[in-house]
Amino acid sequence: MSYLLQVDFPFQGPWGEEMTQAMKELANSITHEPGLIWKIWTENPKQNEAGGIYLFDTEQNAQNYLTMHSKRLNEFGIKPVNGKIFAVNKDLSLIDKAPL
Fold it and tell me: What is the model's pLDDT at position 100?
C-alpha cells in the first residue's frame, strides 16, 4: 500500500518560474528521500500558500519526511506547517487515472 502526504504552509513567494529556479536544488534533493515515489509541487499566490502532495511507499517513510520537512520549514520561520497522511485506495484510484 502507498501513502499520500499532503503539506501546506504560508509562503510569500517566489512563484512560477522564479520558484522553479529558486527551488531546483531542493527538488533534486527530495528525489533521494527514502520511499518517495513522486511529489507534486503546489503554489497558491493569491492565498500566499505553498506545499506539495507526495506519494510514499510506507506510512513510516511519509511520517519521517513530514517530521524532517516540518522542522526544516520551522527553522526558516515558516509556521504553521500543515501535514496529513492518507492511505491510498489503489483500486479506486486506478479507476480515476491516478499515476500509481
Answer: 87
Put simply, whether the predicted model's pTM sits higher than 0.90 gets the answer: yes
What secondary structure does DSSP assign to 3-60, as a single string?
A: EEEEEEEE-----HHHHHHHHHHHHHHHTTSTTEEEEEEEEETTTTEEEEEEEESSHH
Which sequence spans correspond to the domains of the chain?
A: 3-95
Nearest CA among 14, 4, 11, 27 for reference residue 80: 11
CA distance 79 to 29: 22
Q: From the first residue on, what is the mean pLDDT of each consecutive set of 10 residues in the chain (100 residues)? A: 97 97 96 98 98 98 98 96 98 95
CATH topology of domain 3-95: Alpha-Beta Plaits (3.30.70)
